[in-house]
């Protein structure tokens, strides 16, 4: 029976001449750099998406203001139409009640939509997956 020598598994130099401490230091430095780059990428993506959202919100704000005036004058018109059949105070009360119901419905729907939203960062997610694969390869 022959005995085959086993390789040293001690704190000696690696095959490229570096010690274990140097290898661990290099991997730690690489991971630190990688994490900083991921954070920078996430910040960049969020800034880009925030800029797009701000522009869209501004346009919607302007449309909302114009729509408000249209609805205000339409409501006033409806109130005067109802005044032909009812007293003015009752016509105003009916129009107000219709808008109160619409407001409540929109508030509930809007709240549900906000709770269901989950912002996505596709590039950051993909590079994080690549980083995990890279770290696993370094371990092997």
From TrEMBL:
Transmembrane segments: 57-82, 88-109
Origin: domain of life: Bacteria
InterPro entries: Phage_holin_3_6
Keyword Transmembrane helix: yes
Record keywords, A-Z: Membrane, Transmembrane, Transmembrane helix
Location of the region described as Disordered in the Swiss-Prot/TrEMBL record: 1-20
Name of this chain's protein: Phage holin family protein
